[in-house]
Amino acid sequence: MGKLEVHKAGTLSGHQNPIFAIENGVMAHIVFTGGNDKGVVQWNLETLTFERILYPVQFSVYALHRISQTPLLAIGTRDGKVAVVHTDTQTLAAKLTHHQRPVFDIKSFRTKPEVVLASEDGTVSIWDTATFSLLYHFKVAEQTVRTIAISPDERWIVFGTKEGKIKLYNASDYSFGGELPGHTMPVTSLSFSPDGRYLLTGGRDAQLNILDAQSFSSVSTFTPHLFTVYAIKYHPTLPIFATGSRDKSIKIWSAEDFRLLRVVSFERGFDSHLLSVNSLVWNPYKQQLISVSDDKQAMVWDVMLI
Q1: Closest by alpha carbon to 167, among 133, 194, 138, 129?
Q2: Residues whose CB is less than 8 angstroms from the CB of residue 218 and which lie 6 or more positions away in sequence, other chains included
Q3: Residue 216, exposed/middle/buried by CB under 10 A (0-12, 13-18, 19+)?
Q4: What Å distances lie between residue 272 and 8, 51, 103, 234, CA to CA?
Q5: What is the mean pLDDT of residues 239-267?
Q6: I want to staple 180 with a disulfide (CB 3.0 to 4.6 A). Which of 40, 166, 286, 302 is the partner?
Q7: Where does each WD repeat begin and end (predicted)?
Q8: CB atoms within 10 A of CB 185
Q9: Mean pLDDT of 149-174
């Protein structure tokens, strides 16, 4: 692997409160952000500018997810509702009103028309994306289900809970597949590697666990950050992944041997976040990494192997 270079491309400013979620649009240069504001914001990465308020909200936004192969953005809020908004027309396509507590994560499948919601009420709900009718709902934990990951082959779906547990389910019928090695504190991030070899899990205990994604046995555990690991995101093509943390830093790692390649933080000389990094996304427009934070900023990073 060559040398990794990271440069700041710009800052997306405009939020008046902490930003908790970010998602890519249908068009490569578009991203959406949401947080403790009154609206989901659309940004243009060509010009690094605000475009519009996509959709107004009454409650904090904790999750944004573009439903696979559609222009529909699912917006999970503190009141437990999920608004499904058409990103071209800004019209409300559906309102999913099952949960009574905050929705913290949303995922969908490529191979079947279903979207999955995870809530603070300890349950998960499955919705048909053609009719937006409720298909299934089941209890996963006594407390919050914080994060979801779907394996690249869409055989497995994994949930991380406030109790530090990681629950494995069969994605075909949502039958319980077992409990995986977990954390001593709440699980806050999950990610399968794109090649399907590994499942990475991060927690409030500041640990990152590497599991074999075939046997789901533990491969390694290490401490990547000083505090909670809020995000784990693999680059779509390069053999690297990024983590974001409550310790205000972003770290870039080798996906091949899990070596630390670069630390992006104010303390390391970057014009970077001053508060918790809450979420990350790799954007396809220029293969840039975008981070969002409690400091009300979204920052755009050029990450290159040279």
Answers
A1: 138
A2: 181, 209, 210, 211, 212
A3: middle
A4: 8, 23, 28, 20
A5: 97
A6: 166
A7: 12-47, 96-137, 180-221, 222-263, 270-306
A8: 15
A9: 98
DSSP-based three-state secondary structure for 60: coil
Planar angle of CA 283, 14, 16, nearest 5 degrees: 120
Helix, strand, coil shares of the chain, percent, nearest 5, are: 0, 55, 45
Say whether pTM exceeds 0.85: yes
Query: What's the confidence (pLDDT) of residue 97?
Result: 97
Distance CA 201, CA 146 (A): 12
Fold observed for domain 4-305: Methylamine Dehydrogenase; Chain H (2.130.10)
Contact between residue 305 and residue 4 where contact means Cβ atoms under 8 Å apart? yes
Q: From CA 16, how far away is CA 37, in angstroms rounded?
A: 7
Query: Band of the pLDDT at 67, cuts 50, 70, 90?
Result: very high
Q: Taking the domains of the chain in order of start, what are their residue ranges?
A: 4-305
For 72-114, how does the pLDDT look when each residue is reduced to its tens digit (9 = 90+)?
Answer: 999 999 999 999 999 999 999 999 999 999 999 999 999 999 9
Two tokens, residue 57: 């909200």
**Where is 49: in which H helix or E strand?**
strand 49-56
pLDDT at position 1 is: 65
Contacts of 164 (CB under 8 A, 6+ apart): 182, 183, 184, 185, 186, 187, 203, 205
Q: Of 157, 160, 190, give the one whose Cα is nearest residue 176.
A: 157
Q: Stretch 184-197: mean pLDDT, rounded?
A: 98
302 token code pair: 């050029």
